[in-house]
Amino acid sequence: AKKQGRNGFAFFDAQMRQATEQRMQLLKDLRIAIQKQQFELYFQPIVDMASQKAVKAEALIRWQHPGKGIISPAVFIPLAEETQLILEIGEFIFASACRTQKKLMSAKHQVQLSINVSPIQFSSKHSRLVDWKTHLDELSLNAEQFVIEITEGLMMNAQQRTQSRLNQLSKQGFALALDDFGTGYSSLAYLKQMDTDFIKIDKRFVDGIADSADDLALCEAMIMMAHQLGLKVIAEGIETEAQHKQLLAAGCDYGQGYYYAKPMPEKVYLDFMNNATYG
Ligand code: C2E
Ligand code: CA
Ligand code: CA
Ligand code: CA
């Protein structure tokens, strides 16, 4: 039995080492990716539920790895956050979204672009978030043309710097959205603390609404409460017509999900917008 245990331990040890090596390799690749600009923003339309016009879009980052193909942000964003590389990636995201906004304007599309901003970009001394408004001024863009998506993780243990940057962005005219609403702790308390414009109902609530009375009731309650607080609601991960209809009936303002459109490269997104049905 002793021998077996030792073998088991050796096996676990090898697994640990392999995981660490994979992480180190990914980090090495991530540094190269920044230098070689292997990132690209995809855009997923967000529709006005009543008219189904694509009046907003969320920018979602993709990493085109030369050997491994597209790597999901769910994999590399956490690593980028742990290593502060998110600060540089975050600047790329903003600059890139600005360029797309200019193209949308040239094509006469009025779209509010959502950008995901990491808590690190709020808390770090080295973050250039504070210069974004200046960059917009230089490009003749307005802060009102952008939504900053933040998660509840931002507000947990939020330091003074985070809170003041949040206030500053809001004062500058950026809209704020609380992402993955309802999945974290004390979501409601945070709503009071910050000047939110939108809440985004998480996909896991939307998933069940067609066949679970509880999930439908939860969505209805979130929508009602948001409206009473003067906020608009975006439902995420809408995949079926049934979900669309139920959320529309519940008074949800905006919808995002495969039912309407998947995230797409900028060029495809601009073509999508130029199509008379959506633009
Ligand atoms: P998120 O901000 O909650 O983004 C929504 C995710 O849901 C996206 O996954 C999107 O592709 C996916 N999605 C949208 N509609 C549907 C649907 O109908 N069905 C299903 N199954 N999925 C749907 P994605 O692009 O893989 O991003 C995953 C997460 O990575 C994001 O979650 C966000 O937390 C993070 N992320 C993505 N882009 C960025 C970025 O530019 N900056 C930062 N800081 N984080 C990002
Ligand atoms: Ca988001
Ligand atoms: Ca506002
Ligand atoms: Ca979300």
Automatic annotation (TrEMBL):
<feature type="domain" description="EAL">
    <location>
        <begin position="23"/>
        <end position="277"/>
    </location>
</feature>
<protein>
    <submittedName>
        <fullName>Sensory box protein</fullName>
    </submittedName>
</protein>
